[in-house]
Amino acid sequence: MSEAELVQEREAMREAEMEDLRHRLAEVTDELTRQRKQPVTVHVTTPHQTQRLKVFTGFAPNGGNECTFQAWVQQIESLLLTPDVQPCDPRILASLRGVALNAVKAAKTNADILANLRCLFGCVEDTEARLISLACRKLKAKEQPADFLLQLWEELLDINKTASMTDEELQKKLYRIFCTGLQPSLPLLALELRNNFGFPGTAAPALTDVLLTVRRTTETLHGQKPVTVQSSAQHVTPDPIDYDKLAEMVASKLRVDRPTGRRPRGPCWQCGLLDDHFARDCQNPPNPGKVASEKAKIAPRAAYSLNGNQSTRGGRR
C-alpha cells in the first residue's frame, strides 16, 4: 500500500470518529431537552396540614426528609383521618418518589395506593419461621407453667391465622411444644403429663385438661416440702408410740425426699431425638445421620464405664 493510500485511509477513519461523536452529542442534547420539558412535582402545604410529609422512595432512607415504609404509612394513616382528604389525595402522591411513585400510577383511590405499596414493601411474616421459633421456647426460671401454656396457646392462635390448622393439629402441636419446654426445668411435670395424656407428638389433649392437670400437679409439688426423718419423729408423742403410724410417716417422707420417676432413656434409634420415646412409638421420619451422631456420643461413655469398673488384682505394679 502506497503512502497516499495510507493517508486517505487515516482521513476516512478520522471522519468516521467525528461522525460518531456528533451522533452521541445529539443524543445527549435530546435527552437534556426532554428532561427539561418534564413537569416538576411541587409540594403544596395546605392550611390543614400542620407538618410536612416525609418522603418515601422505595429504597433505604438516605437522610434528609426520607423515611422508612412503616413511618410513611403511619403519617399517611393520620392524614386520612382529616376531613379534607380527597379520593386520590395529591399530598400522598407528592410524598412519593422513584419506584414507589411508579408503583401507584394506576391507583384511583387512597386505599389502592396503600394496598399496592404494602404488597411491595410491607413486611411478610413467615409462618414456618414463627413455628420454629415457638418450638424453641423454654420455661423461664420464675415463670409459672400455667402462664407458659397460655402464652403458647395465644401465639399458636395468632400463627394459625395464616397457617389454617385444624383444632386437633393445634392441640397436638401445643402439647408437644409445652412438654418440650418443660423438660429442662420441670421434668417431673412433663412425666406426669406424658403418663396422663400420652407421648408428645401423637397425643392431642384439650387445653382445659392440660391446664387443669398442670395446676393440680404444680400445687402438689409446691405443697410437699422435704422434711427429714428426725424432725418427723420429734412430733410423735412418746407415750404411747404407734410404731405402724411412725413407720408409715417415715416411709412417706422418704418418698417425698427421694426423686421419683424412671431413669431417663437415651435417644430414639429412628429419629435421634432426646424427647424420651421408643423407636416403635416414633412418628417422626427416620434420620440416620442424627442417630449415628448420638451413638457416637454414647460410645466413649460406655467404653469409659467398662474400663473404670474393671478390677485389678494383685495391687499396684
UniProtKB/TrEMBL annotation:
Residues 306-317 have a biased composition (Polar residues). Residues 56-158 form the Paraneoplastic antigen Ma-like C-terminal domain. It comes from the Eukaryota. Residues 284-317 are annotated as: Disordered. Signal peptide: none annotated. InterPro entries: PNMA, PNMA_C. Pfam families: PNMA (PF14893). PANTHER family: GAG PROTEIN (PTHR23095:SF46), PARANEOPLASTIC ANTIGEN (PTHR23095). This is Paraneoplastic antigen Ma-like C-terminal domain-containing protein. It comes from Littorina saxatilis.
